[in-house]
Amino acid sequence: MIKKRKPIKIGILDFGSIQQAVEGEGFSVKCLNPTKVFTDAIKARGYASVVYKVDKCQMFFGKKGASILYNNKPIKGCDVLIPRLDFSVNIDLEVSIIKQFQLMGIPVVNKYLPISKAKNKLRTLQILTRYKIPVPKTMIVRKIDYLDDVIKKIGGYPVVIKAPFGSYGKEVAMLESRRSLTSALDIMWKQNRTSIILIQEYVYEAGDSDIRVFVIGDKVVASMKRTARVGDFRSNLQLGGVASRVKLTKEEEKMAVKATKALGLDVCGVDILRSKSGPVVMETNANPGISGIMKVSDVDVVGEVIKFAAGMAKTAKIIK
Questions:
Q1: Is there a single domain that holds both residue 218 and residue 309?
Q2: Which domain CATH number covers 245?
């Protein structure tokens, strides 16, 4: 009698469900539970799924080593893990649970260290520039003493200011004068636990638009153009940005893949601005949204992520 092989078990590490309405050109997509989108897709492809809610996980450390408990019981584990992130503070602490899964020998799609790098905008800039990947002119400030010199180096007003951590367009603002910049910095310094603020050039020619490139492994699988709604400059779909189709240049494709590799990510959303001097990488995202880009590009992005994860699991089994 031939023994039936068990299907690959793909785990989803759920840091929390984000309710969001994603608006796009001629469509509106509501994704109440991204984790369910993944588990349904895993099942449809003949794999098994298991969901780990982070708030139900406990890490145990003792004389014989460390382990993960789930609802106070030993965790059964999986063949590969896909973290679905929802945090922008206490990053080093939050990613420690991902590291613990790695220490258990479980392959992870986006490991803890690359996630930590990508979640830190300052660290991302350091890595991208180290690998000669063009970025917008940016200066890091801790106090206003050198503000006038900073603005000159950036290229003058308007400028964009950002906190070193944050997503979905939060803690990002565009300022057009020294007075508004000073006031905004005051507010951000009081709200954030760090004194570090990024001041970045505003790229006029991008027209309040950017290009989101979805990279898996060493290839681009989907892309879209995002344009800010009237009265805003942030193109995030969660803030009402409009999504449309876009054709990438070869340079943009290579740049997106190179940025993903530089950060060590398996799956990455690379945000590119088209400037007069060529494309520049504005930001990277270790947990890129799926609804908008799947709709506008007609690419089964979730299926591609699952395919990649299953491949990691198979490779790990062969090595073992």
A1: no
A2: 3.30.470.20
Structural domain range at position 81:
9-110+301-319
Tell me, yes or no, whether 213 and 194 share the same domain: no
- Residues 41 and 99 placed together within one structural domain of the fold: yes
Q: Are 12 and 101 in contact (CB under 8 A)?
A: no
Alpha helices in the chain (DSSP H): 34-44, 91-94, 96-103, 112-119, 121-130, 147-154, 178-191, 250-263, 291-297, 301-319
| Residue 15 backbone dihedrals phi, psi, to 5 degrees | -85, 0
37 and 106 fall within a common domain: yes
Paired sense of beta strands 138-141 and 65-70, if any:
unpaired
Instruction: Say what the alpha-carbon torsion angle 138, 142, 144, 145 is, to the nearest 10 degrees.
Output: -100
Residues 197 and 155 in one domain: yes
Helices and strands (H, E) in the chain, number of each type: 10, 17
One digit per residue, pLDDT tens: the chain, 320 residues? 445 578 899 999 998 744 444 444 444 445 547 888 999 999 999 999 999 999 999 999 988 889 999 999 989 889 999 999 876 566 778 889 999 999 999 999 999 999 999 999 999 999 999 999 999 999 988 777 777 888 888 888 888 888 777 655 456 777 777 777 776 766 666 666 667 788 889 887 877 788 999 999 999 999 998 887 554 555 555 555 577 899 999 999 999 999 999 999 999 999 999 999 999 999 999 999 888 888 888 899 999 999 999 999 988 766 55
Contact 208, 228 (CB under 8 A): yes
Residue 92: how many other CB atoms lie within 10 Å: 11
Helix runs in 142-239, H state only: 147-154, 178-191
Task: Give the 3-state secondary structure of residue 308.
Answer: helix
Selection from 161, 299, 297, 180 nearest residue 237 by Cα: 297
